[in-house]
UniProtKB/TrEMBL annotation, chain A:
Protein name: Cytochrome d ubiquinol oxidase subunit I
Transmembrane stretches, start-end: 20-41, 53-71, 91-115, 127-150, 180-205, 217-238, 281-303, 315-335, 362-384
Family listed: Belongs to the cytochrome ubiquinol oxidase subunit 1 family.
GO BP field: aerobic electron transport chain
Residues covered by region (Disordered): 396-415
PANTHER family with a match to the protein in the record: CYTOCHROME BD UBIQUINOL OXIDASE SUBUNIT 1 (PTHR30365:SF15), CYTOCHROME D UBIQUINOL OXIDASE (PTHR30365)
Origin species: Micromonospora tulbaghiae
Pfam families xrefs: Cyt_bd_oxida_I
InterPro entries linked to this entry: Cyt-d_ubiquinol_oxidase_su_1
GO molecular function, one term: heme binding
Primary localization: membrane
Membrane topology: Multi-pass membrane protein
UniProt keyword annotations, A-Z: Cell membrane, Electron transport, Heme, Iron, Membrane, Metal-binding, Transmembrane, Transmembrane helix, Transport
TrEMBL record, chain B:
Coiled coil: none
GO cellular component annotations of the record: cytochrome complex; plasma membrane
Organism: Micromonospora tulbaghiae
UniProt protein name: Cytochrome bd-I ubiquinol oxidase subunit 2 apoprotein
Entry keyword Cell wall biogenesis/degradation: no
Biological classification of the source: Bacteria, Bacillati, Actinomycetota, Actinomycetes, Micromonosporales
UniProt GO molecular function: electron transfer activity; oxidoreductase activity, acting on diphenols and related substances as donors, oxygen as acceptor
């Protein structure tokens, strides 16, 4: 088999799974910051209970984000050694910054936040969650800087066939970066908001205890989803301009595209320099889903006098709509990345040149092994998430107070 | 400047072996079928440190990619099978430890325990094999690529993998001696010091096989550093055993931590100034300077990342300080 195809399939699989989890992470952590801050400021116990319940779902979801993220990081070296060899001087920098400045701190803070309930002062504990959220956004920022550079390489010069960094500022002002970052962050918020609304809707439909609690999170989730879906659409459409200008081969034909293909043929030799025909079919569906999600706005007036709960049908609609942001995210991601083909770095490094000279057998082993492993972990994780969501907020393990009379216990209490 | 980044890379990987090392050692202890301590207590001992420990690996690979991109590509793809094993292990441990106590049923938890144990074994074997593979050189061709993966199939690589496995087991048991309630410390200290002879045998076997290997002898530029490595390991293990017998868990932990911290810097020193030594074409060897990113990149990373280094270490230290001491009735339980 063709190692290039195998390496691409593996990257697509890992990244897709990664995306499904980190979007929820990004959305939920923002909502958690709101909940815990509200609890800190008002002192109302309901906010602490909300933070523990949603925090537990957040922490379970986070596991797969890390697991797939580590595999992604290693994959650059394992399967795409050409990327580090030819463009590592430039592309590696934002990734290194992400791990050191963002992810390292995010994980350290999260460990302390999970175990810091009833142990740290409330202000410190809240500050840790703020730290987790800020570093999560910083992670997304640097990853999107790196990705935007692959879409539109800037701020470099090629000497001896290797790209060298000349202007780091250009990476940050890259036209393929800003709007895409906003788009991804909004997508995370829509997903997190809708997840919160859907789980709450399920509890309200089932008439489980904690009506007031789930009523609050339904409202919070829905308003967040509505506000961010408009941002999502705005940032999405704002990208058509720069993409059409900088990546003429991505979405459709025209003289620019033909001129660029002619130019590449002259510089890199004859070859198929256009993305696969079907690469932007998903984009249409994604836009369709985006408009459908915009209908969340129609549900907001029903928050008045809790009509949304009394009518029940809106709750069902929210539940049914839960898969939509996940599907849209994958479609949008595929359009962005497959539309970049056949380039690893657009117009600079062909994908075929970026792939590692590793035997197809090893690569196939890796593809099958990691797809099965991460797929199984993802399904397990979702089952656990669903069970914990259904269990309700009466006593999540996260933030459970220690035994009241600690002198009598020399052993932790395990439940 | 390359040297500073090389030292930083070494620091992060060494810190990962020390901190991640006791994660894996503690994880291995889940394989024990004894009354006390149970799996939950064992994982509670790890508790708040776990996420902060694993992340040193991610940061080390980040530095590798940002500051040594060429090395990153050739190292990871040239050591494909062992990196695959280590990576699988890391993923299994990461998921296993965090998800293990989410299901309520005892059978599901026991299944997750086995996942964690398997992950710990794979991770320790994989990283041990990778370090040994560096020490024995790689078939680096003239165009700078490692040819094939067969170069890893040597007894030395296998022995080094087993040696690291034994070392993390001792390290993890020592950590538990230090961290679990005092009532359980004597039994754990006996377990840890009972593992020391196994680790000594594994280290001795790896040393002998390394000395017998032509490739290792040819690749090592500074034999002093390479000889120092097994000596330090043996000394640290003996010191740990002596301290465990006297009930001084803190000293023992410092000794096992030293044992895990030193392989990375000593291997770096033994190969210096090269990092990937070619067994087929001496001229094709990759030096640290050649592997490094170009000046502007290193300068940028230096300006952005280095001022934050105290913050990174400070927050890690905060975590150790806040959750220091033995776990007791007030210890938060989550994993």
């Amino acid at each position: 088999m063709d190692p290039l195809l195998l390496a691409r399939l593996q990257f697509a699989t890992t990244t897709s799974i990664h995306f499904l989890f980190v979007a929820v992470t990004l959305g939920l952590v923002t909502l958690l910051v709101g909940l815990q801050t509200a609890g800190y400021l008002t002192g109302k116990p309901v906010y602490e209970r909300l933070t523990r319940f949603w925090g537990q779902l957040y922490v379970i979801n986070y596991v797969l984000g890390i697991a797939t993220g580590i595999v992604m990081e290693f994959q650059f070296g394992l399967n795409w050694s050409g990327l580090s060899r030819y463009v590592g001087n430039v592309f590696g920098a934002p990734l290194a910054i992400e791990t050191l400045v963002a992810f390292f701190l995010e994980s350290t803070f999260l460990g302390m936040w999970i175990f810091g309930w009833h142990r740290l002062r409330r202000g410190v504990h809240l500050a840790l969650l703020w730290g987790v959220a800020i570093t999560a956004y910083a992670s997304a920022f640097w990853i999107m800087v790196a990705n935007a550079w692959l879409q539109n390489p800037v701020g470099y010069e090629v000497r001896d066939g290797v790209a060298h960094l000349t202007d780091f500022g250009a990476l940050l002002t890259n036209p393929t970066f800003g709007m895409a970052f906003g788009h991804v962050v909004s997508a995370g918020l829509v997903t997190g908001g809708l997840l919160m609304a859907a789980v709450s809707a399920w509890h309200l439909l089932r008439r489980t205890p904690d009506y007031a609690l789930f009523r609050t999170s339904l409202r919070l989730g829905l308003v967040t989803a509505a506000l961010s879906v408009s941002m999502l659409q705005g940032f999405g459409f704002a990208q058509f301009g720069p993409v059409a200008q900088l990546q003429p081969t991505k979405f459709g034909g025209g003289p620019d595209r033909d001129a660029l293909v002619t130019d590449w043929t002259a510089r890199f030799g004859p070859g198929d320099w256009e993305p696969p025909v079907l690469s932007n079919v998903g984009l249409g569906f994604m836009i369709l889903i985006g408009f459908t999600l915009g209908a969340v706005w129609l549900l907001l007036p029903l928050l008045w006098r809790d009509w949304i709960i009394r009518l029940k049908v809106p709750l069902w609609l929210i539940l049914l709509g839960l898969p939509l942001p996940f599907v849209a995210m994958l479609l949008g991601w595929i359009a962005r990345e497959v539309g970049r083909q056949p380039w690893a770095a657009y117009g600079l490094l062909p994908t075929a040149q970026a792939v590692s000279p590793v035997s197809p057998g090893l690569m196939l082993t890796s593809l099958i092994g990691f797809s099965l492993l991460l797929g199984a972990l993802a399904v397990t994780n979702w089952v656990l998430l669903a069970r914990h969501a259904a269990r309700g907020a009466h006593d999540p393990a996260l933030g459970r107070p220690p035994a009241p009379d600690s002198d009598a216990h020399h052993q932790p209490v395990f439940v | 400047m390359e040297l500073a980044w090389y030292a930083l890379l070494g620091l992060f990987f060494a810190a990962y072996l020390v901190l991640g090392g006791y994660d894996y050692g503690v994880g291995l202890m889940l394989a024990r079928r004894g009354p006390a301590p149970g799996s939950r207590a064992t994982l509670t001992a790890l508790g708040p440190f776990f996420l902060g420990n694993e992340v040193w690996l991610v940061a080390a690979v980040g530095i590798l990619f940002g500051a040594f991109p060429r090395l990153e590509g050739e190292l990871l793809s040239g050591f494909y099978p062992v990196v695959l094993a280590a990576l699988t292990g890391v993923v299994l441990v990461t998921a296993g430890v965090q998800l293990r106590s989410r299901p309520a049923s005892a059978t599901a938890r026991a299944r997750w325990d086995r996942v964690v144990v398997a992950g710990c074994v794979l991770a320790a074997l994989g990283w041990g094999a990778l370090l040994a593979g560096l020490l024995q050189g790689v078939p680096l061709s003239g165009d700078g690529h490692v040819v094939g993966a067969g170069h890893l199939a040597t007894p030395f690589v296998a022995a080094a993998g087993l040696a690291l496995l034994a070392l993390v087991a001792v390290h993890g048991a020592t950590f538990l001696t230090l961290r679990l309630p005092a009532a359980e410390a004597p039994a754990l200290a006996r377990l840890a010091s009972g593992l020391v002879p196994a680790a000594l045998v594994a280290v001795a076997a790896a040393t002998v096989l390394g000395l017998l290997s032509d490739r290792v002898r040819a690749a090592v530029a500074r034999p002093a550093a390479a000889v120092l490595l097994p000596l330090v390991l043996v000394a640290a293990l003996l010191a740990a055993r002596a301290a465990l017998r006297r009930g001084r868990a803190g000293t023992a932990f410092a000794a096992t931590a030293t044992a895990l911290a030193l392989p990375a810097p000593l291997i770096g020193a033994a190969l210096w100034p090269r990092i990937l030594v070619s067994t087929t074409d001496p001229a094709a060897s990759l030096t640290v300077a050649e592997a490094a990113a170009s000046r502007p990149t290193l300068a940028l990373l230096g300006w952005l990342a280095l001022p934050l280094l105290p913050a990174l270490l400070g927050f890690q230290a905060m975590c150790w300080w806040v959750f220091r001491g033995r776990i007791d009735g007030r210890a938060p339980v989550y994993w």
